[in-house]
Backbone:
């Protein structure tokens, strides 16, 4: 007996259960009209997921309950089972924080009723595995199945049962789980296998799973193995849209899919598309009918651009911003950012601004002009040399009165302070003022390499509405620039000279495209800094120095051995460089990151709430001190 399964991946708007429910009700009608027997909707499809402490507001929770009942009631006159995620409340109990008991739950609705699994004391399924890593903080808000089992004096296995429903005269056992319940690698309790052991006919994972580069490939490996181990088909249902936790903007790519009982990927929905994926399930053989039809895998840079473009576009729409101002220096970061906003908003809604100071070369000024001309945007030149000098004069010529002893003195402006005055003049004065006059906002152009070591100025180049490339290393920004030329615009909107010239802040005689340029050797430091941030087991100076000592650092970094030899003349210079950047990474850079704009998250660890950090002093371990002394003695 064949059943038609519908798997929907709607755009979920966090904190708007009213709008989400309207959309869900429309999807229910559409699925019913298409003859579907079962409709799967994502985890927390009614409230959204990343809500912060809105989870503590009782009136909001009660509204989510009310909207959930509307969805259940919508099935009353339909021959359609709807499985969806929502918050569930138990007013008779409390969480560990003393607030009303809340569960991240899945509801199976049929004929106007919510169906339980016969083992739980509720008519919904409770999530077992609550993630508390990266951007997740589920235990702060939800009570888990593991906690409930302990409270009831039983085991999670005894409470993990399928939901039985009769469709077309046949009993079907739905093995319903929620997102993290399917990521079994690091949990002692295997929810998919427990459902299979309890007689499930098909496994279904309701997810609210944000995009991370290469995550879909890992999910395919994991979920395919689960389906094969359980000898059951598995449906993965994820939402689209964006959600944020204040410091990170996460995109949700959907990519809902269906695996057969042998682990074969049978069908997959397109990324970032509000589609309903339909497949046919044979209840007798427990197989997905048809031939496999997976989508072709995207190349890395295409994947990155699709996520960034989608995330920025949705974020601007959410805030009602239709115009953007971008500081255009003539370098790769600002050129890529300018091209991105032009692709999203249209050239007429983008204002590019070149703000030359005393040290800006004709080359970079020309590159800025050529980029704006190629993109056909609005463009203006606002020199800052005079205003920066005026600020210097005000600071140095205005006496400071000491009321402690009745004396006066004057402040001095060092070359380093003057660099920061220029950067702040561009950001806090020019760009902020132009954004207000233009009727929009202005962008932060900082990349992940710069943000790692604070190579940016407070209230200058690290301010703005959002940092679209803030989770991209410098080499990835270059790759994105080529992609914009070759695939998006299909012409050279970013001039070739920008890819060839040395990056430079152009804030002093030592920082020009013709002299020293940036103090970072990007091919090396990109990979080193990635160890600081993206390594799951947090790399430390000791580990890096250990690999340097035994000659395995190139393998750890994934670079050519000659790169390290060409970058450092001896061990002392290598150690000095490592300590310089580690101190900055752990020091003032943290304060800059805390005050930086929200970042479109792409990697497996993005700065912000994804990479949680406190303002501490740099620390070098005992092992590091020992290794350093031994190496320097040699």
Residues:
């Amino acid at each position: 007996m064949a059943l038609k399964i519908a798997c929907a991946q709607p755009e979920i708007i966090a904190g708007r259960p009213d709008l989400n429910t309207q959309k869900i009700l429309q999807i229910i009608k559409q699925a019913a009209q298409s003859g579907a027997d079962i409709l799967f909707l994502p985890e927390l499809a009614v409230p959204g997921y990343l809500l912060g402490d809105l989870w503590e507001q009782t009136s909001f929770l009660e509204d989510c309950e009310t909207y959930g009942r509307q969805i259940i009631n919508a099935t009353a006159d339909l021959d359609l089972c709807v499985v969806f995620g929502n918050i569930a409340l138990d007013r008779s109990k409390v969480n560990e924080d003393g607030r009303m008991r809340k569960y991240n739950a899945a509801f199976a609705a049929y004929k106007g009723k919510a169906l339980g699994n016969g083992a739980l004391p509720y008519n919904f399924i409770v999530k077992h595995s609550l993630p508390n890593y990266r951007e997740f903080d589920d235990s702060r808000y939800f009570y888990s199945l593991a906690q409930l089992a302990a409270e009831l004096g039983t085991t999670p296995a005894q409470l993990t049962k399928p939901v039985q429903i009769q469709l077309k005269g046949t009993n079907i056992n739905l093995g319903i789980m929620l997102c993290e319940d399917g990521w079994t690698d690091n949990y002692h309790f295997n929810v998919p296998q427990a459902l299979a052991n309890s007689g499930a006919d098909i496994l279904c994972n309701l997810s609210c799973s944000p995009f991370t580069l290469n995550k879909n490939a890992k999910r395919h490996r994991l979920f395919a193995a689960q389906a094969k181990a359980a000898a059951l088909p598995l449906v993965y249902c994820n939402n689209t849209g964006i959600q944020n936790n204040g410091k990170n903007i996460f995109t949700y790519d959907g990519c809902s899919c269906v695996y057969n009982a042998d682990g074969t990927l049978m069908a997959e929905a397109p990324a970032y598309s509000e589609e309903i994926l339909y497949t046919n399930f044979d209840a007798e053989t427990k197989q997905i009918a048809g031939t496999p039809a997976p989508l072709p895998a995207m190349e890395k840079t295409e994947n990155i651009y699709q996520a960034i473009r989608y995330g920025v576009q949705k974020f601007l729409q959410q805030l009602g911003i239709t115009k953007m101002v971008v500081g255009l220096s003539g370098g790769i970061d600002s050129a890529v950012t300018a091209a991105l906003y032009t692709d999203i908003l249209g050239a007429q809604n983008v204002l590019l601004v070149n703000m030359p100071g005393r040290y800006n070369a004709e080359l970079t000024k020309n590159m800025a002009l050529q980029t704006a001309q190629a993109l056909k945007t609005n463009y203006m030149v606002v020199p800052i040399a005079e205003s920066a000098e005026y600020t210097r004069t005000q600071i140095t010529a205005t006496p400071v009165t000491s009321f402690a002893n009745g004396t006066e003195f004057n402040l001095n402006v060092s070359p380093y302070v003057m660099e920061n005055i220029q950067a702040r003049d561009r950001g806090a004065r020019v760009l902020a003022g132009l954004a207000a006059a233009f009727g929009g906002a202005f962008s932060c152009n900082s990349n992940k390499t710069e943000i790692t070591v604070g190579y940016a100025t407070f209230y200058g180049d690290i301010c703005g509405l959002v940092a679209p490339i803030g989770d991209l290393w410098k080499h990835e920004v270059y790759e994105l620039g080529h992609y914009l030329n070759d695939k998006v615009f299909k012409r050279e909107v970013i001039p070739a000279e920008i890819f060839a010239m040395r990056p430079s802040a152009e804030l002093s005689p030592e920082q020009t495209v013709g002299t020293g340029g940036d103090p970072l050797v990007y091919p090396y430091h990109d990979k080193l800094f990635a160890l600081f941030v993206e390594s799951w087991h947090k790399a430390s100076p000791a580990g890096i120095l250990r690999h340097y000592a035994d000659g395995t650092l190139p393998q750890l970094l994934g670079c050519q051995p000659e790169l390290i030899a060409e970058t450092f003349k001896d061990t002392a210079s290598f150690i000095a460089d490592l300590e310089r950047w580690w101190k900055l990474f752990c020091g003032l850079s943290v304060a800059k990151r805390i005050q930086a704009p929200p970042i479109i998250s792409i990697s497996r660890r993005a700065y912000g709430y994804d990479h949680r950090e406190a303002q501490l002093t740099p620390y070098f371990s005992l092992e590091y001190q020992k290794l350093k002394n031994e190496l320097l003695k040699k």
Residues 117 and 163 are 4 Å apart (CA to CA). The two ends are 76 Å apart (CA to CA). The mean pLDDT is 95.
